[in-house]
Predict the structure of Palmitoyltransferase.
Amino acid sequence: MATLDTGKEVENLSVSESQRASISSIEPIPPSNDGEVSEENISLTNTDNQSGALDATLNKYREACQTGDLVIVKKMVESGVIDLKHDYSDEDRVSGLHWACINNRLGVVKYLISNGADVNFAGGKLDATPLHWAARYGYVYIVHYLLERGADPKLVDQQGFNVLHLSINSSNVMLVLYALFFIAGDELSIDALDPNNRTPLLWAAYQGDSLSVKALLEFKANSSIVDSGGFSPLHWATVKGQIQVIKALIDDGADVFQKTNDNKDCFIISKEMNTTESLSLALLKNGLKADGTPLVKYFSNPHYAKFVTFMAPFVLLGVIFKLFASINFLLALLLSLLSGFAAAIGLKKLVLPSFISSSGSGSFFKTPFWAGILLGSLLWVLYVWLARVFIATFEEEPFINLAFLFFATVCIISFFKLLSSNPGKIVKEENHDKIKETIQELLRVGKFDARHFCIETYVRKPLRSKYSRFNNALITRFDHFCPWVYNDIGLRNHKLFLYFLSSLIVGAICFAKACMEYFDVLEDASNSDFKCMILDDELCAGLHIDPFALFVMAWACLQVLWVSCLLTTQLFQTIKGITSYELNEKSRERHGQNEPSEFFMTTPTDLMDRDELSALNQGTVNSNDRRLMKPRTCFSTLCGLTGLDQLPVILSGFFGSARGQQDSIQTRVGTGRFATNNGWKTNLKDFWLLSDQTAPLWQRLLYSPQGFKASYNNKEVDYRTLYTLPETTLPQEDMV
């Protein structure tokens, strides 16, 4: 597989094996329906140096099998020119069925088998069956058909590889899942050994194939089995340095201190292979220090640690407001930055380790800290209003105060509802029989890929859904993850989210208006004439008499700015009938960052529809072009948190580009109109009104969907099973 820095060989593998092991599910295999695999570029047969020219007739037959020319294959077989009992050269023993399988020609495969081709014929120098050839290249449809027609999954080639080993070797997670659900177990042990005692899990770990490793571990693959060199899957994962693989194996119980036959543990191997950083990060994600010992956790219950993280911003904001109210502005700014930095470091060192490792999320942005900032802001605003503003201004401004109380109440209630709301989760399917039925149905219709089958929850993916690692579920009509409410936004809480944003903005404006009246009262009571250069009299009075209230008001007004941008973005998307996720995906497509191979699609052309065939033949933008790959900076992260990242797209949609072009937003972020845009009137009705037309109008407007049924194009649809969009005609007057 590789050699360590000491120069000592770890394992003796062939060059072809080393090349195959470089593939991983992080770099999925693309569909290869456009070309064929010939004997010059197939490693399984080892026929690169064959001597002698093939018989012209046999060569024509092979070429037809490779290219999927069923007309020629039928003609040659039915005319008797080709005998399916001996349709190969005695030199290489590679049948037409082999060539059709390795080139993903399902139509030819079906014809050959139906006319008597031996489905278990062992050919090539490795005595591999057509099933082995198809599995090696990840062609799940071919594998499925061969097994249905009697292919024996227990057979091995001369290398000692069975179909499960070769499925792992293909790094197509769709085939791996198929093999685990339909082959592993009764037919074949999930821990089947090759001649060097390597299990499928060990091969997947060496390849750095995190998706296959995760799937194997879920099916209880043994992570403690070692190969003939004493290497466990964790040892080989450390050699490769793929963090997610190392993390998954350690989480499964793999021993980081276990030694190989050469008396080397993972720490020694990581130093020799220069993967120490990967090992350390994986250990940290599992709640371990860089030396493999457990991190100190100051909270026995992760929920207590989350609560501290959630409430810490309230204290931090109070300290910052007090600093600005008490000392020089520049000094207060410096001390505030230091306080924020110290709070972040303290949380990361003392609090976050108690729950981040258990939740599996290492991102600080997916902690309750940001929701705590929002709650802390609301609480300090309420404190200032109750303790100071309300008493002084209610008599003169009762309407403003009552309006603030109403919107603040709505804001706080909706905030806590959003924290615990169900965004429309489809949880993981545990019934294997149902999963098998789903896989078989998707294979039948040519949709068994990661775009249509969720490899995390094992269910068919509805349109407009996305898997969320935060909720460990598929979210229907997924919009985005919002750190400010510490939850995903989807079908069942999207409307509530917009009501929350609206109430926050209006409430903050009412608070600012009441504060200005409060400062005016302070100015009148002081009998002083305050002058502060650019500030008006009321603000100047607030700065001199009650700076704490002034800075709380300024902070509230600052929130209005970015929340208004976020709300504008969201409202625009409801008018267009799209979600933030769909808008981002269109943008990725435009920049060539969304390749079909991401979906592990190996659908034979026989089963592709017109759109898929068209997409397969279209050229794609080079996703490696650095001009299109924008690195994530602090500014872009801030824009993502506040929703400002999509504002330029919206402005371009309304006003055109700087050159005066009047292109629509659809043209700018993708090709053609959004499929979910049914006209602005219909889009707004679909979003804001419940699908239950028997309910009162006020109820349809205020309540969110309680299940998965909602309106789409004025019709009730079930978003849990929305696999195709209903056809629609868009009236010209509804175009936006």
